[in-house]
Every structure is written in structure tokens, then in C-alpha cells.
Design a protein that fits this description.
eight-stranded mixed sheet, D-Amino Acid Oxidase, Chain A, domain 2, 413 residues, binds flavin-adenine dinucleotide
């Protein structure tokens, strides 16, 4: 069913009790052309583009829990493309361009809101970093503006510019913003399902069928499924899946946390990030302040992090915005982020033929969901990796062609 004002009116007559299910819940079949492991945004987007653009509709998405229950439904939804290197600019801006028409394309409101995003600078080093990155953004055709402290104050009137690390300037990307995280998973799921993709929840992949160095399928908690090609898109669990297939990834998994406040009237209409004091903030459409913390210092697979990290984050927020010092926090949660040494993702073939991986997005992969799914789908469907995906091969850790986004990615997404 197409969602529209007419379907809304039609369903009002039956008190909205007859809306059809957004997607089916089929039992897994014994074989598919392509199996995607992981029902987060990236996995679902991959399935959608396989079916809609690559002519591959015999696809299953296998998810051990519920759709978007991983990092997709746990993130702070920041979208931007102002990274340093050309390779990153290509993939993140490809994504931002797809975000702009996504609600219409999926016929599902993903609530993309390009409200502008500020990176604050608090030191000479920060100023040099935003200067270098902003120039690189210009060269890559990505919008970037430098703001003086006074211009920052005009955008965020209640900010405390003269805090312990005074605000010296900022980098602004006006096309950056936020989107609704669950809606992205649900929108892709619904659109993929409509094209014939089987979305199978509560089904854990427990191993791979590998014959003579070629993947032949997956073992799951609901039986074996054979497939010509398998794509693994499981974020924080990617090393676990790689181990099942018999190879190692240059990735570490850490807990990363976020929290939201009680809802208040609209007070901040952009996103403000600070790597210097390590906190960032935006306001959701419900009025909650959405605050992101840093990752824990230690590896872990638990979806919760240390209280000391939350304490530091709230301290930094109150320093920058004393006006929030008496606000109550409503919820706090964590996800498991998959971090590479150069803070760039892996979109790659693997040592196992026809087994592909898409992971390593770490603290900042939500923004890349459409672009990542798009180039991954084309890579799986074709023989060569998509040109935008190619530099993110696992081989870069052998060749040394790293894409160091340490400063642009940091923890502040
Ligand atoms: C607190 C927090 C804040 C963040 N903030 C931002 C932000 O503001 N902006 C941004 O761009 N990014 C942000 N990120 C990062 C972003 O959330 C992720 O990079 C992105 O969502 C990854 O999407 P995904 O689809 O690859 O992974 P996920 O959404 O984690 O999906 C992977 C799925 O794989 C499933 N899975 C795992 N193992 C198996 C198995 N064996 N069998 C079957 N299924 C399996 C999991 O259950 C999960 O649903 C944040 C992350 C966190 C945790």
C-alpha cells in the first residue's frame, strides 16, 4: 500500500485498525541468491538496492534480534559529509545526496532534517583541523563555512563561549542534520519487502558453509540456508562473524553511549558538536535534548557503558550550556561500535570467495546508511567493488593506503 494523505483518510474510517503489516515475516527458505546477515540500516539498505537497482530480488536479510535493534536504533542520528579525505568525501556525500530524496523514494518519512551542523574549535589545534578540513571540503564540492565565536553565538544564543576551553570558532555544514533512526530501518525494510526480499527476524547466524574457499551459505538458529553470495553487515559483531568464517578483521568493538533529557520547548535548531570537550547535542522533534557521549576505554560486547563516561559528558554539556544544568535526563543506553585503526569503514571482499563485509563504521555510520547500502549492493551484484567502495577494501591494511579520519570522525561522529 502506498502511504499518502488518501490512505490516511481511508484508514480513518476504520479507526486505523486495518493498516496492513509494513513487511511480511516469512519462514526462511532453504536457499537464496544473496543472504545479507544483519537487519540494521546498512543491511536493509543493501537488500533494498539489490532488489530495486541491481535486479537481484532473491534476497534474505537475516537478523538475530529485531530490525534496527543494533546501533541503527541506538544512535544519535547525526548526518553530515564533511570528512577530510577524498575517499570519505565521496562515500559520505553520496549518502547525504541520497538522504535528500529518501523519504519520497521509500514512501516512508525518515524525518531527514538538514538543520545545519557545527563543529566547535577550542584550541589552536582545533582551528587548524577545521581549517584544513574545511578547505578539503571546498575542493570536494562539500559545503563548509567558518564561523567566528560571535556567529556561533548568533546560531546558539545560550552557549557559553568563555568556558574552560573557550570557543575560538566553528566549522558549519548547512546540509548536515539529523534523521529518525528507526524510520530508516523500517522504511528500507518495507520497501525491500515490497520488492520480494524476505526479512527474517529472530534468526541468528551461527556459522558459514564454506567449500574450497568459497561461501555456500549460512548456518542459522532456524536451519541452514544456502546462498551464492553472502554479505555481512553486523557492525559491533563483525569480528565474531569473521572468526566463524576463519579470518580476522582489524577492528575493535567498544561500547558507545548516548542519553536524552526530558522534553522541552524548541531551544536549539541545529546540531552542535565539540571534539575538544567531547560532547554533542541536538534536539529531537519530541523536544528531548539528544546528547552523545564518548566510547568506553575498554573493549566490550555489552550494550551498556561506564557511568564515568556519562558523568564526563554531562559535565562538558553543562560547561558549554550552563542553561541545561538543572535538566533531568530521561534515558541512557549503549551500542557496540566497530572501530578500525584509521576510523574508516571496511566495504570489501574477504579471503572467502563470495563472502563480503561491510563494517567498521564505528561511531559514525548512521549518516552513511543510504550510500553504504547503495555501493555495497552494486559491489555484491557485480564482479568488481563499486568505485566509491573500492578504497575501503580490507587490503588497505596491507598496502598502507589508510584513510585516516581520526580527527573528522573522532567520537563526535
Ligand atoms: C550511542 C551511539 C551513537 C551513535 N551516533 C551516531 C551518529 O550520531 N551519527 C552516525 O552517523 N552514527 C552514529 N553511530 C554509529 C551508527 O549507529 C552505526 O555506525 C550504524 O548504525 C551501523 O549500522 P549497521 O546497520 O551497520 O549496524 P547495526 O544497526 O548494529 O545492525 C547490525 C545488526 O546485525 C545483527 N547481528 C549481529 N550478529 C548477528 C548474527 N550472528 N546473526 C544475525 N544478525 C546479527 C544485530 O542484531 C544488528 O541488528 C552511533 C552509535 C552509537 C552506539
Amino acid at each position: 500500500m502506498k502511504y499518502s494523505i488518501y490512505s490516511l483518510i481511508r484508514n480513518a474510517f476504520s479507526y486505523h485498525e486495518d493498516w496492513p503489516q509494513a513487511w511480511r515475516s516469512p519462514d526462511p527458505r532453504s536457499s537464496y541468491e544473496v543472504v545479507i546477515v544483519g537487519g540494521g540500516g546498512h543491511g536493509l539498505a543493501t537488500a533494498y538496492y539489490l532488489a530495486s537497482e541491481c535486479g537481484v530480488r532473491d534476497v534474505a536479510v537475516i537478523e538475530k534480534g529485531w530490525l534496527g535493534g543494533g546501533n541503527t536504533g541506538r544512535n544519535t542520528t547525526i548526518v553530515r559529509s564533511n570528512y577530510l579525505w577524498d575517499e570519505s568525501a565521496a562515500i559520505y556525500d553520496h549518502s547525504v545526496k541520497l538522504w535528500h530524496g529518501l523519504s519520497q523514494q521509500l514512501n516512508y518519512n525518515v524525518m531527514f532534517s538538514p538543520r545545519g551542523l557545527l563543529h566547535l574549535a577550542h584550541s589552536v589545534h582545533d582551528m587548524q583541523e577545521i581549517g584544513r578540513r574545511g578547505n578539503s571540503n571546498f575542493l570536494n564540492g562539500i559545503d563548509a563555512e567558518y564561523l567566528t565565536p560571535q556567529q556561533v553565538k548568533e546560531m546558539v544564543p545560550f552557549i557559553n563561549l568563555n568556558c574552560r576551553y573557550p570557543v575560538m570558532g566553528a566549522l558549519l555544514q548547512r546540509r548536515g542534520g539529523v534523521a529518525r533512526h528507526d524510520a530508516v530501518a523500517w522504511g528500507y525494510a518495507r520497501a525491500a519487502d515490497a520488492l520480494g526480499v524476505d526479512i527474517i527476524q529472530n534468526c541468528e547466524v551461527t556459522g558459514f558453509e564454506i567449500d574450497d574457499g568459497t561461501v555456500k551459505g549460512v548456518r542459522t538458529s532456524r536451519g541452514n540456508i544456502s546462498a551464492n553470495k553472502v554479505g555481512c553487515v553486523v557492525a559491533g559483531n563483525c569480528s565474531v562473524l569473521a572468526e566463524m568464517a576463519g579470518f580476522r578483521l582489524p577492528i575493535e568493538s567498544f561500547p558507545l553511549q548516548a542519553l536524552v533529557s526530558e522534553p522541552i520547548k524548541p531551544i536549539i535548531d541545529c546540531v552542535v558538536m565539540s571534539n575538544g570537550v567531547h560532547a554533542y547535542i541536538s534536539q529531537s522533534d519530541r523536544g528531548e535534548l539528544v546528547i552523545g557521549a564518548s566510547s568506553d576505554a575498554y573493549n566490550s560486547y555489552s550494550q551498556r557503558g561506564g557511568f564515568n563516561v556519562i558523568e564526563d559528558t554531562v559535565g562538558a554539556i553543562v560547561e558549554l550550556y550552563p542553561i541545561f544544568s538543572r535538566m533531568c535526563m530521561l534515558r541512557q543506553w549503549g551500542g557496540i561500535v566497530d572501530v578500525t585503526v584509521d576510523r574508516s569503514p571496511l566495504i570489501s571482499k574477504t579471503p572467502i570467495k563470495n563472502l563480503y563485509i561491510n563494517c567498521g563504521w564505528g561511531t559514525g555510520g548512521f549518516k552513511a546508511t543510504p550510500g553504504s547500502g547503495h555501493v555495497f549492493a552494486h559491489s555484491i551484484a557485480g564482479t568488481d567493488m563499486h568505485p566509491i567502495a573500492a578504497p575501503f577494501s580490507i587490503d588497505r591494511f596491507n598496502t598502507g593506503a589508510l584513510i585516516d579520519e581520526g580527527a573528522a570522525a573522532a567520537v563526535a561522529h
